[in-house]
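In this section we turn from sequence analysis to structure. A common task in structural bioinformatics is to predict how a protein folds when a small molecule is present, because the ligand can shape the pocket around it. The inputs are simple: the amino acid sequence and a SMILES string for the ligand, here SN-glycerol-3-phosphate. Study the lines below before reading on.
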Amino acid sequence: MTPEVITVIGGGSWATAIIRILSENDVRIRWWLRNRQDAEHIRKYHHNPRYLSGVTLHPKKVKPFTRLSEAVKGAGILVLAVPGAFISDVLSQLRPEDFAGKTIVSAIKGMVPGENLLVTDWLEKHYGVSQDQFCVIAGPCHAEEVALEKQSYLTIASSDRERATRFAGLMRCRFVNTHPLTDLYGVEYCAVMKNIVALACGICHGLGFGDNFQAVLVSNAMQEIKRFLDVIYPYYRDLMGSAYLGDLLVTSYSQFSRNRTFGSMIGKGYSVTSAQAEMNMVAEGYYAVKSIDEINRKYEVDMPITRAVYTILYEKASPATEIAQLKELLT
Ligand SMILES: NC(=O)c1ccc[n+]([C@@H]2O[C@H](COP(=O)([O-])OP(=O)(O)OC[C@H]3O[C@@H](n4cnc5c(N)ncnc54)[C@H](O)[C@@H]3O)[C@@H](O)[C@H]2O)c1
Ligand SMILES: O=P(O)(O)OC[C@H](O)CO
């Protein structure tokens, strides 16, 4: 069989980890990065100089590109792995024809700010990608642990089960187990919302709250996510599954969590700008909380955790005061 040709778009940790996983299988990867020097470095030394630099990339299977129109040529699968805030800018070089007939995989756990759309909805609106072309990579998995080849699990969601199963096969390897699911939008929304919860966990940690409080916060957050999903996209789903609860747990508790780290700085008194400047990485929850809060103005679901994080980050409310109020609402 001829190897599957896959274009991966993005130069960060998750793109690097996905390439590491995929290249365990029989694939050819066309990797788009925006930075010319990084691409040149990868061509020469076979590792990403900025993210997960300890990961060696297969020289025959992985080919870096800096022109996106070139990178997508001949690929049957496009994997999007840039933060949601940059997707519109990055894809502006492409036309709807570049997506036609391909499997479009979103590895993004964020919304498209401004339009408050899930990445799949945004691609449908702007590039005419049809719903059954999409797969979403979900599940509790940090790029840093993939780099260490620690056993991980991923869920591949698509409304087309066959497509999810095929892509799940390509993402399965020695240290990654995968399974398909059909709750495309539920999984995508949950992945966006768990980042908001991780921000809340970080803020509370930064304020000095302990494990007892965090356990209550996370269990209340799961109920908040359920209330929102039941209204925005009702579907028979088991929220105890690893794509939902599992992802919420890893992001809330892990030392690798970008969102928790960002939140912790806010709880300790950093401004948003200084917390962002400290990180070489992107905390998706910062953008997501604005989108979800704005979407919820229409639905009016009871979401005290989202509201508190929004008020702290966007209205500059005191974290101590907001969390003191939230404390009274948790059960
Ligand atoms: N890192 C993980 O473990 C992990 C796991 C699952 C999902 N994700 C998701 O993957 C997506 C990518 O995150 P990541 O962790 O790879 O990013 P990261 O935080 O490691 O790196 C930041 C990324 O943003 C890009 N970037 C920064 N400024 C940019 C700009 N102006 N224009 C275009 N790109 C710009 C950088 O090139 C880099 O790719 C996010 O949606 C994230 O939620 C990450
Ligand atoms: O935990 P974070 O904030 O680094 O987000 C990364 C992934 O979404 C975890 O699955």
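The pocket of SN-glycerol-3-phosphate (ligand 2) is lined by residues 109, 140-142, 195, 198, 247, 250-251, 254, 256-259 (CB under 6 Å). As an exercise, try to locate the residues that line the SN-glycerol-3-phosphate site and compare them with your own expectations.
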